[in-house]
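Progress against Task 2.4 (sequence-to-structure conversion) is shown through the following example record, which the project officer requested during the mid-term review.
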Amino acid sequence: MTSIAKWLVAALCTLALLDDAHAQDANSAHPWMVPKLLAAAKAEGSVTVYGAINEQEALPFWHIFETETGIHVVYIRASDSQINGRIAIEHRAGTHSWDVVSTTVVMLLPPSFLADLDLPEAAHIEKGAIGPGGKWYGVTANYNSAAYNTKLVQASKLPKSFEDLPNHADWAGKIAIEGTDSIWLKGFFQYYGEERATDLLTKIVRTLKPVIADGHLALARSVAAGEYVAALNNYDVLTLNQKIDGGPTDILVLQPVILSYGQVGIAADAPHPNAARLIVNFMLSREGQIALSKGGRIPVRADAMPPGLVDPVKKLTSGKVVTVTLTPADQKTWQTRFNQIFKAH
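Structure tokens generated for the chain above:
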């Protein structure tokens, strides 16, 4: 072998060692980057995510993944119901355009639409954040409670319980609830029982005449803007998000607090299955969970809870927390009940 050839071999070996060292360093810094999965995901080049998180939070979050992996994220944002409707239409048409779905109602999709999941970072999340059959993971904890506008309502005059709400007749027509809050309704009935829940909600609706809002984010913004004095229920992460942005709003903890999850699932027929698995593994990682929490989202990993969320979460969990999941059949039942109670007045 000539001296030049020997030099080339040595140089190539050195480069290989450097590449290996770089890969090990990257894996150490970002344990969600499983090497084999990363390589397969890079070969696919992109991943399409259908999600309900607003673009102000979602785009910077996906940018972290893009920067670390070089994989392009196509993000399509819509409401929960719009996304599930779009997925149903695509399924009937036999099209396969989405890889990952991230909403609060992934659990309402037919299980056959979703891939089986078994990702390493899931070992670190709350046990309750793993869906039946491993079809979805919870990526954020969605605590549900009332919210209010801090400029329009003095803290000393806030209701102390749902039983106290009918005593606030001056709020009539100035309080709202999102029109698809079947998860909250099921939890409310689980806590109070059929007879007590029916009686109490009848009094609340008759006295306060709650307005039906379209979209949880829109409701949070409307309360912060003073369009309503309060929300009978909303996702607390959205209230906190508005508060972080300087809006005059805060959560109002009335028992029970309903817990559900912001969920993520992967399409059974995903065009980019490896990129989908990698990005979901990122979402479940400590790095991903911390990034999600910067917008006020509550992580499902104890090691990712930021100091600023410790007190709000303690406040929410200081009393009775009812965890709720729905099946597609449950959703129809409880949405019908919701319409009967809130849309009939």
